[in-house]
Amino acid sequence: MFEPATEAKLADHCTLCVHRRGILTGQAGQYNHYVWDKSIPNVELSPLCSPNFRPGPPGEQAQVLSQNMDDLLKTSGCINFEDLCICPGKLSWVLHISLVCLDYDGNIMDACVLALVAALKNTCLPAVTVDEETGDIKTDPTTHTPLSVACCPVSTSFIVFDNNILLVDPTNEEEKLATGAVTVVAEGSNLVSIYKPGGTPLRDDQIEDCIDRALERSLEAARLIDDTLCSIDR
Amino acid sequence: MASFTVVKQEEFEAQQEKGSAHVLRCLTSGLSCLTRQDGSVSLSQGDTTSIAVVYGPAEVRINKEQIDKATVEVIFRPKVGLSRPEHRKQERIMRNTLEPAIEAHLHPRSSISIIIQETEDLGSNLACCINSACLALLDAAINMNYMVAAVSVAVKENEDMVLDPSKQVEKEAKSIITYVFDSVNYQIVTIASTGSFSRVQHMEALKLAREASKSVFQFYRESVAKKLLMSE
Amino acid sequence: MAAPIGNVVIPGDIFSFTQLKSTDDAKKILLGPGLKENDLEIKVIRPGILRYRKPGVYWVDCHHKRYIPSKGESVIGIVNQKVGDIFRVDIGGSEQASLSYLSFEGATKRNRPDVKVGDIIYAKLLVANKDMEPEIVCIDSYGRSSGMGVIRNGGFLFHTSLNLARKLLNPQCILLKTLGNRFQFEITVGINGRVWVKAHSDIQTIAIVNAIVASEYKDNDQIKEMCKRISKAVSRMEVD
Question: The Exoribonuclease phosphorolytic domain covers which part of the protein (chain A) (predicted)?
């Protein structure tokens, strides 16, 4: 099966996103959201990408990132859950999303969101037929329908230095010195999330500034993703 | 040991009268509600309740020792089950919110641990947990630069704003934004949101939450005053 | 506006120097615990009651349960370990205090004091600094014990809040005097919230401990009333 993989690269930082599709058979009566609750996107920060990470179970940062990706998928509305349904109440697609960091140089959130969205846009689902009598499931690999992705959220991260200097797209070194961080996820003219986990208190105009820049950047990045996808030879 | 309960009554009455969406739910705090801890508090915002305790400045494990400041640990315990990634995220938000508020460099080579137990989540749980943690720090008289107050705002499908939403409102809402402010300049310490919203809605919610945070700070003052003036 | 002396202040409250100066005309203002100088302002960093003493001394009086060592204070500690020439003593702070075997009255290299692990020690803090390990001694600057040393012969040690320990040591508190009129007992109060009590019988000891714990939020009249009740109850029990 064709498994879409995308690589997002921000300067020295790159993240690979692979989607693996599976079919989940559910008991009659279960509704489709159930599937989504079971599949948390997984972000992997292994020693491969940076010496800061140790092998073993995912650390706090990886867990928080996975959760952020999960929240983003569920609340941004970029995927309509019903599109994944094959046979209501019985059969549904499940998307396994693994985000593997290849080279860690800070600003992992932006890279992950970029890779995630690009991979979703690049996903094709084969046609499935279900035999009513035997219950056999047949996939037809020759006909693909692309997964419909309603919107294209783009994340923009900022860090705070010395309590008043805002810096966009921080590197790993800069992140270590920062006293606070803000991540704005924008989609068109809407905000999908503003995430400022503590740190130095900021004034309203500083947050406004971040939002302005995030909105501006989201348009550029969305255009870039679309251009790249158009150039792919299917 | 005595425990000090403070109920913010006028807000309770205001809510009963108008059923207005622009007031906080009734705040109730019980300072020093437990005996063995350095600081403890049980806080309820409406029906949402949490218990927070603080130990510190206490002995620190050698691998977590920092020579220039105290190590701040935040542990969040969900009501049932083990902590999952979503709780890790909450934990991290809370730690990053509280750590800069604490004057950690006054207690080098020690640890300040904050343990927050969710007891009842009926809406605005994150806000309740952050507020209880801040009150517990005040109860333990930990040196702090400023206090923090968290307020949640829900944006409904019909664009209405609801301050301090209940579980029911949260379920129906388009998005929920939690803001945390500091007590000195009322600047923004934390923003955590779920669901999409527009820029204008963010500004409106921010204004609403900031006004509400002032009454949370007033509530902190009343709670602490009740405890301190008791022994006068 | 004058500084709110005697009122509750909480972290983040800010005063100007002129505000503080208006209460007296001291040339120099001294800031005690809980206050921090920040540019040209004074910032409160812990919740408590703002206090003032002439000339120009300000501090925040707050409720602690955890002890933070401070130089010159008398504390009660428990010997935890004996490492070479020093003892490690738990005084309730974030670190164990060290106590040299030579800092006892009359101790020499030959004549070592009789201290065992688990002993209770009443001592004074010689070094207390946020960056250093606290050190306690059982002698004053003349080399005399002046009441300090190992506390022996039974008794009962219990923990209270630091506030209560300070209250007991406050000369205005009548609790110990009132209790002393009714019972005969020995008591040692460490400023670190540890109190050691010994009376003629266990019943009396327990009664005194209960009276102390219960007195935390009582005023002098209530304390008198309570002592009366307790002594009645004790005399009834002792008859049985």
Answer: 41-126, 153-216
Whole-number CA gyration radius for chain A: 19
Instruction: Kindly determine whether residue C47 and residue B55, on different chains, have CB atoms separated by under 8 Å.
Output: no
Domain residues for the domain of B175 are 4-229
Helix (H, G, I), strand (E, B), or coil: what is residue A85? strand
Domain count, chain B: 1
Q: Which chains touch B (3 or more CB pairs under 8 A)?
A: A, C
Neighbours of chain C (3+ CB pairs under 8 A): B
Burial of residue B134 (number of CB atoms within 10 Å: 0-12, 13-18, 19+): buried
Interface test with A, best of B193, B206, B208, B213 (most A CBs within 10 A): B193
Say how many CB pairs under 8 Å bridge A and B: 100
Residue with structure tokens 């947990």? B129
Say if the Cβ atoms of B100 and A40 lie within 8 Å.
no
> One-letter amino acid identity for B16?
Q
Q: Could you confirm whether domain C8-61 is CATH 2.40.50.100? A: yes
What does the pLDDT read at residue A233? 61
Dist. CA A84–CA A164, nearest whole Å = 45
The domain C74-151: what is its CATH number?
Answer: 2.40.50.140
pLDDT in tens, A123-150: 777 777 777 777 677 777 777 778 888 8
Q: What SS3 class is residue A200?
A: coil
Residues in chain B: 232
Beta bridge partners of A34: none
Amino acid at A207: I
Does domain C156-239 fall under CATH 3.30.1370.10? My reply is: yes
Q: Which of B108, B144, B228 sits opposite C130 (nearest CB)?
A: B108
In chain A the domains, ranked by start, together with CATH numbers, are 5-230 (3.30.230.70)
- Scan for tokens 């969205």, then name that residue: A117
C10 chain-B contacts, CB cut-off 8 A: 138, 147, 183, 220-221, 224
Cβ distance B92 to A60 less than 8 Å, yes or no, reads yes
Which token pair is C15? 């005063």
Tell me whether B38 touches chain C (CB under 8 Å): yes
What CATH number corresponds to the domain at position B213?
3.30.230.70
Note the pLDDT of residue C64.
86
pLDDT of residue B13: 57
Q: Are A66 and A58 in contact (CB under 8 A)?
A: yes
Report how far residue A221's alpha carbon sits from residue A168's, in angstroms, rounded to the nearest whole number.
Answer: 15
Domain with CATH 2.40.50.100 in chain C: 8-61
For residue C130, what is the nearest residue in chain B, using CA coordinates? B107
Residues B157, B175: Cα–Cα separation, whole Å = 8
CB–CB of B108 and C131 under 8 A? yes
- Subunit contact C45:B143, Cβ cutoff 8 A: yes
Contact indicator for A19, A96 with CB cutoff of 8 Å: yes
Q: What is the ipTM of this complex?
A: 0.87
* Higher per-residue confidence, C84 vs B137: B137
Which one of A67, A182, A191 has the shortest CB-CB distance to B196? A191
**Min CA distance, C239 vs chain B (Å)?**
30
- A127 φ/ψ angles, rounded to the nearest 5 degrees: -70, 145
